[in-house]
Specification:
Blueprint lengths: L1 E5 L5 H11 L10 H9 L3 E7 L2 E10 L4 E9 L8 H13 L4 E4 L6 H6 L16
Parallel strand pairs: 4-5
Antiparallel strand pairs: 1-2, 2-3, 3-4
EC number: 2.3.-.-
Keywords: Acyltransferase, Transferase
Organism: Lentilactobacillus raoultii
Length: about 130
């Protein structure tokens, strides 16, 4: 049975397994385990999707819970795509935060249409300073 959970701690091994299954690396599989664990420990809001005891999706967010929420990544296991889990996860995130909080993200070009179909608007003035290592 598929369940969505908020702020449930996940083991680093489960996080990495999901990234491998989703072919969603963004360089994270090359990071040190210490850095990745720190990233997980300091995530302010994590919404996860579970099939029984298996982590099959997640959204990692940084938020002030009043104005803005930056969705740093949305990951769904390849075996679970096409079932509406990404949409369910985003709807759960929006319901949890409420309408007063803007959700901001950087989407891969091929994912823009997915977000637009859910009411997200593309903006052109998002900027980024890349990390050094």
């Amino acid at each position: 049975m598929i369940k969505i959970r908020f702020n449930q701690r996940i083991a680093l091994k489960d996080f990495l397994k999901l990234y491998r299954q989703a072919s969603f690396e963004q360089g994270k599989l090359n990071d040190s385990p210490k850095r990745l664990q720190s990233m997980l420990d300091h995530t302010q809001l994590m919404v996860t999707v579970w099939d029984d005891k298996n982590l099959v999706g997640l959204a990692r967010c940084l938020t002030d819970y009043e104005s803005s929420c930056y969705l740093s990544e949305l990951v769904i296991s390849t075996n679970y795509r096409g079932r509406g889990l990404g949409k369910r996860l985003l709807m759960a995130l929006h319901a949890y935060l409420g309408g007063r909080v803007s959700i901001i993200l950087r989407a891969a070009p091929k994912a823009v249409g997915f977000y637009q179909a859910l009411g997200y608007q593309e903006i052109a003035n998002l900027v980024r300073l890349y990390r050094e290592d």
